[in-house]
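A quick aside before the break. I want you to see a complete sequence-to-structure record at least once, exactly as it would be stored in a machine-readable document. Don't worry about memorizing anything.
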Amino acid sequence: MSTLITIKDADNLPTKTPIGLSALALIGLTQAGAFLGVAGNWMWLFTVSAVLGVLVDIVTYQLRAIRVLLGSAHIGLVSRSLVRDLGLVILLVQNAQTAPVSIFWLCLAGFSVPVLRGALLFLDTPLERRFRRAVITLGLEVHEPRPHARPVPIPEPTAAILVGVIPLVGGCLSLLTGSWPVFFATVAAYLLGLGAWLGLALIALVRSRRVAPRAAHLALVNRALTDWRPEAAIYFSGPPTATYQLQMWLSVMENIGRRVVVILREPAHLPNVGATTLPVICIPQAPDLMTFRFPTVRVAFYPAHVGKNIHLQREPRMKHVFIGHGESDKTASVNPITKGFDEVWVAGRASRERWRAARVGVRDQAIVEVGRPQLGGIVPASGDRSGRPLSVLYAPTWEGWTGDPAASSVPSMGSALIRWLLNRPDTRVIYRPHPFIGTVADSARKAHEAVISAIRADPRAGTLPDQPSEEDWRKTVDRHLVISGSATTLYECFNNADVLIGDISSVVPDFLASEKPLLVTNPSAVGHETIRAELASTRAAALLDPDPSGWEEALSDAEGPDTWAEQRRALRLELLGPHHDDPVEPWRAALADLIERAEREWPDAAAEASAPMDG
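That is the input. The structure line, written in tokens, reads:
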């Protein structure tokens, strides 16, 4: 487990993992040791427990799940550090008979450490409010009259507590050696250092009154965007791991022939969209977004269903279009909340039929078939392997928000599939799971880890750099690969695979653009006639049941003679729509039509959106 998790995964690390449980156990042991050291006046035990406790706190503070769990129990980082500080004061009082000063001065010196630290951390809130931008922009020229950077950074809680270990260690050494000057010297150094920092923070807070208010900064950015005159917007909100849902649309928006602005709600997405040529504005606070004006924007696109969508959907002077982040036969692809949009843009006829059959309130006239413009970069099958191994892409989906065991093939079939492929002659595997795999169900997480372990333990395992070149792919043509993160796109994996093994997800319809063979998993072992009648994406592929007896026959057929080729071509038209030399052209036409209709419906939209708001 420890070899599969890096510090960048820490935000999603569950507390039930071995790392999470170990962290909780270490925190508990160090706190218990500090308590016992104080209760028994065992200074060595307290010293060791306190110092180890600080180190454990600094490391585990990076694990968000641990922070949330302990914070909800009111034993967060600050509380635990206060326990250590109080324990030191008690030990100082217990051994005051050897001190050169009275108990009053010992207590004053001991309590000054958490008080000063608390004061500095407390100032973080007003400074953050004063200097926090209402809007963060990328690629938009905004002329600000004053710099808006915070001149004095406030240390992270871990940094403040790490500095606070200096007087803690000094006090422990004084108790152990009887050398009281060590304690007073470390306290004095601490007070001077943090005191100076606190003074600078107070000065910055006073001077920050001259900084342009949030409302003025908001108006400044609003004016700059209005001058740029965007006609459309793509709006996105979600966790940092979901940025891929937006990224897949950026190239389309860049080539759509209209001025498009990207609207984000979380700053965490900014590093992942910095390469776009589109202007980006990030407005985290709902009141700021709802007072921000978009007088020239006639159409807003939405790649995801999130609660924050309503903060822009409330704008009546623009048409709101749901575009999603992939189409499939999953239930999530016909979410009833979609009926709140003016239009739903889909790839092909199968999606229209899916919405009609779902009967969730989305009107047939609201469905617009525009194809899948992202698929233009997928390289069609060449049929020439040139002596290299068969490249099999296993791209399973995740378990979904409900942890449905049948949604993903990984829990029930993943390990067996991978072992079979690893042991199959003249075959290499590319494992590219859904980014959310294992984030809800422990069974999916454990199975996913087992798949990764099996691949990495194989002698033919290889690695790719972030954002690999074609040469990097050629060098690993005979290596088993694990692809994670968004640096290597799913479509790059398509271009370097001969066959897909996929679950019921948008991966299967998208892969049809490659004209290559595919196999679809059937984790619940549903009757093949039944599943083909209900799920369109299964009608042009062999189905893999949990029973492995039919797997080899299915994959051998995919290598040749490929008996499903004709069905795939027909299904591609049904799922993805007609082929266009320029796959973005249907989007351009649909957008031009929608903007024209919006302008006819709201001829005075720009003037109305620019007018002062009532109330």
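Two observations worth writing down. Confidence is low (pLDDT under 50) at residues 1-13. The radius of gyration is 30 Å. We'll return to this after the break.
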